[in-house]
Write a structure and sequence with these properties.
Largest sheet: none
Shape: rod-shaped
Order of helices and strands: HHHHHHH
Distance between the termini: 84 Å
Helix content: over 70%
Radius of gyration: 24 Å
Number of helices: 7
Number of strands: 0
C-alpha cells in the first residue's frame, strides 16, 4: 500500500512538472509570436514609406532634408538587429515620419492628392497596429517574466534553462519631457 502511494505521489509530481513546463513553453512561444507580429507590421511600414516619399517628392522640392531623414531612418530601421537596436531605430523612424506629416501640412496640393492621402492613412493605420502589437508583446513578456519568477514555476524554468524576454521600450531620448515652448521669451 505504501508503495502504491509513493508511485502515485511520484506520478503526480511528474504531471505537475509537465504542466508547468508546457505552460512555460506556451508563454515563450506566445512572446515569440507577438514579436513576429511586430516584425510584420514594421515590414509593412518599411514598405509603405518609400511609396509615400516617392508620391510627395515632386511636390516638396524644398523639403529634401526631411525626405532624406525619412529615407535614412528607414534604412537604419530595416538594417537593425536585436530588440534594443530595432526599438531605437523604429522610434527614430516614427519621429522622422511624424516630421514628414507635419511638413506635408504646409502643402495644400498634397492634401488634395488621393494617392498621398491614402498612403498617409495606411501609414497612420500601420503606426496604430505597431503600437498595439508592442503593447500586446510587452503584456506577454510580463506574463512570461512573472511565471519565470514565481515559485514553483521558477524551479522548473531554471531546471530547463528558460530565459526571459526583453521588453520593447522607449529609448532614453523618448522618456525626456518635451518642451512646450509656450513662454513669452525668445529662448522658448
Amino acid at each position: 500500500m505504501a508503495g502504491l502511494v509513493l508511485i502515485a505521489a511520484i506520478a503526480l509530481f511528474f504531471l505537475w512538472m509537465v504542466f508547468i513546463y508546457n505552460r512555460l513553453v506556451r508563454l515563450r512561444n506566445d512572446v515569440r509570436s507577438a514579436w513576429s507580429q511586430i516584425d510584420v507590421q514594421l515590414k509593412r511600414r518599411h514598405d509603405l514609406i518609400p511609396n509615400l516619399v516617392a508620391a510627395v517628392k515632386g511636390y516638396m522640392a524644398f523639403e529634401r532634408e526631411t525626405l532624406q531623414k525619412v529615407a535614412e531612418a528607414r534604412a537604419r530601421a530595416v538594417g537593425a538587429a536585436g530588440l534594443r537596436e530595432k526599438a531605437a531605430t523604429e522610434d527614430r523612424l516614427t519621429d522622422a515620419v511624424g516630421s514628414l506629416f507635419m511638413v506635408m501640412e504646409n502643402y495644400p496640393v498634397l492634401k488634395s492628392n488621393e494617392n498621398v492621402m491614402q498612403l498617409q492613412e495606411e501609414l497612420v493605420s500601420t503606426e496604430n497596429r505597431i503600437s498595439f502589437a508592442r503593447q500586446f508583446y510587452n503584456d506577454l513578456v510580463a506574463n512570461l517574466m512573472t511565471k519565470l519568477g514565481v515559485f514553483p514555476d521558477n524551479l522548473i524554468a531554471s531546471l530547463f534553462s528558460f530565459q526571459g524576454a526583453e521588453y520593447f521600450s522607449a529609448g532614453e531620448e523618448d522618456r525626456a519631457l518635451p518642451s512646450a515652448g509656450l513662454g513669452a521669451g525668445k529662448n522658448d
